[in-house]
Amino acid sequence: MGKFSGITYRVLSKRLREFGFMFFRAAKGSHEIWYCRETDRYTTIPRHRGDMAEGTLRQILRQAGIEADDFFSDK
């Protein structure tokens, strides 16, 4: 199991808030758009049960401009 496994919506949303993101609006289906005013970046995250797929999490971090090492480091 890699470091990208075991991340749920709840964990992801908590970490995104720590990086300055906030819920912006609902998107199609069970997805949400999150926005960071400081960086002027948007990212779309799925609100599903269970763990996120590794590729999905990588894409969310890429859209948000967050390095994986920063995301997984303890503050």
Describe the structure in your own words.
The protein contains three helices and three strands, in the order H-E-E-E-H-H. It has helices at residues 9-18, 54-64, 68-72; strands at residues 21-26, 31-36, 41-46. Strands 1-2-3 form a three-stranded antiparallel beta sheet.
Series of secondary-structure elements, N-terminal to C-terminal: HEEEHH
Task: Give the CA-based shape.
Answer: globular
Structural class: alpha+beta
Order of adjacent strands in the largest pleated sheet: 1-2-3
Biggest beta sheet attributes: 3 strands, antiparallel
Number of strands: 3
Q: In which range does the helix fraction lie? A: 25-40%
Number of domain units: 1
What is the CATH architecture assignment? 2-Layer Sandwich
| Radius of gyration, in angstroms, nearest whole number | 12 Å
How far apart, in Å, are the first and last alpha carbons?
Answer: 23 Å
What percent of residues are in strands? 15-25%
> DSSP helix count?
3
Task: Predict the CATH topology.
Answer: Metal Transport, Frataxin, Chain A
Name of the CATH superfamily? Hypothetical protein
| Poorly predicted regions | none
* Overall residue-averaged pLDDT value: 91
Q: Which CATH class is shown?
A: Alpha Beta
